[in-house]
Design brief:
single chain; alpha+beta; 4-stranded antiparallel β-sheet; 46% helix; 20% strand; elongated
Length: 166
């Protein structure tokens, strides 16, 4: 009986299965690594653009009156970052009503103190403006947004407390 040199069909099929399994595992590994790098790049760009835009607003409105701050603005970042856009919104700061908390305490608080606290709370709210900037990455499946909030304070606004002058 003469033995032939070479591989049997079973040996060839087994080798092809092992090779294809190894290639699939390698491709998944590369794909996963690529996706992680892409996600990291998007996160970095989002945070950098948000920081840049927030710095623009701080420089633009520092030392100016709170009334000069627009209620809303939005735009994109041009050709440099075509998939990114930004939005700014501002509103009067809502200081919590501590007078209501004080009156809820046992024994409450006298009406004059309550009026003074309410007036101060109102004045503080009018002296602070909350500005929120949001940067959005437009992704085909799901948009990604990051936001940051800062507060502009008008230190020149006089406090008018009842019974204590202007």
């Amino acid at each position: 009986m003469k033995r032939r040199q070479g591989f049997t069909l079973l040996e060839v099929l087994l080798a092809m299965i092992l090779l294809s399994t190894a290639l699939v595992m390698l491709a998944e590994s590369w794909s996963s690594a690529f996706n992680r790098v892409k996600k990291t790049q998007i996160t970095f760009e989002l945070s950098s653009l948000l920081e840049r835009k927030m710095d623009d607003y701080v420089r633009k409105y520092k030392g100016k009156s709170l009334e000069s701050i627009q209620e809303e603005e939005s735009d994109d970042f041009g050709d440099e970052y075509p998939q990114y856009s930004w939005k700014m919104s501002s509103k009067q700061f809502e200081f919590p009503d501590i007078a209501a908390t004080m009156t809820a305490k046992e024994g409450g608080v006298d009406p004059m103190t309550q009026e003074v606290i309410s007036k101060m709370t109102d004045q503080i709210s009018k002296s602070i403006k909350e500005v929120t900037v949001t940067v959005t990455y437009k992704h085909p499946k799901k948009n990604i947004e990051v936001s940051a909030t800062t507060y502009f304070v008008d230190y020149d606004k006089p406090l008018s407390i009842p019974g204590m002058g202007p």
